[in-house]
From TrEMBL:
Cellular component aspect of the GO annotation: cytoplasm
EC number of this enzyme: 5.1.3.15
Alphabetical UniProt keywords: Isomerase
Keyword rRNA-binding: no
CDD domains: D-hex-6-P-epi_like
GO biological process, one term: carbohydrate metabolic process
Protein source organism: Sulfurisoma sediminicola
GO function term, MF aspect, one: carbohydrate binding
Protein name listed in UniProt: Putative glucose-6-phosphate 1-epimerase
Catalysed reaction equations from the record: alpha-D-glucose 6-phosphate = beta-D-glucose 6-phosphate
Top-level taxon: Bacteria
Top-level EC class as recorded in UniProt: isomerase
Active-site positions on this chain: 170, 273
Amino acid sequence: MSTATELNSRFAIADFLGFEDIAEGFTVANVTTRFGTARVALQGAHVMTYQPAGHPPLIWLSKFAKFAPGKSIRGGVPLCWPWFGAHATDAKLPGHGFARTVPWQLADARVLPDHRVRLEFELIQTEATRAQWPHACTARNIVTVGPELELELATTNTGNAPFELGQALHTYFEIGDIRKTTITGLANCDFIDKVDGSARKAQHGAVSFTQETDRVYLGTHGHCEIHDPVLGRRIVITSTGSRSTVVWNPWNEKADKMGDFGTDGWTAMVCVETANAVEDVIQLAPGATHRMVAQYRSVKY
Ligand SMILES: O=P(O)(O)OC[C@H]1O[C@@H](O)[C@H](O)[C@@H](O)[C@@H]1O
């Protein structure tokens, strides 16, 4: 039986939720609500698309994204977990951790009384994941599709020793043109500028884009907005349990080298990542749960 057939027999909800194998070994959940639609891959519990009704897509997915077991998807909401960026001590381990390229299982799917649809995924741990991350824990990604998209990444320490957790909802947002886009809500925060030797700088005013941009903003406040005069909307991002915000656009040369952006894909995306990274990583005590929650909303001008 294919994974989609199995999931359809356990979790399908007429008019709201169905499953489909879109490539060999690659299954997705298709969510339809009166508020909008979404597609979520079982690999990585990865939100691939979300479009609020009557609005342009909120989430960018590369036309050249590859859907294959073990490959990360260019676009959507990759989960960086349990570390962000390069591993602190072992350069052989995958950048941004392994959560985005391993299978997750669907633990629950339901229509809420207010007609939103909620999917709850749990990371499947194997010998291979334990070899990279020896700490006893669970990870859940709870995805709620409604007039806004909500993600909750919950990590519980089920062992006897504390551990350090780095993470990000590495969300690719769809925009009209990066060169005309600005981001507010980060003014007066310090950031680590990864395209300038990781120099620490202070942000003055709104963030705008004229070149490759790769920054980790520190001590951020859980509210920022992407202003998009080309699509005629702003995207409002609110969060809790997050103290860092990563802002990334590869610009043309780097995007060309990455191979899965196409020629001008980089102009139509910006990553604004709800995160706990660098000095904002979480120390998780035995028995404790950390919840990082983000909501994304499209507001027309
Ligand atoms: O190509 P990846 O592994 O998905 O990473 C994309 C980018 O992700 C961002 O979060 C990082 O700050 C960048 O340095 C990185 O290039």
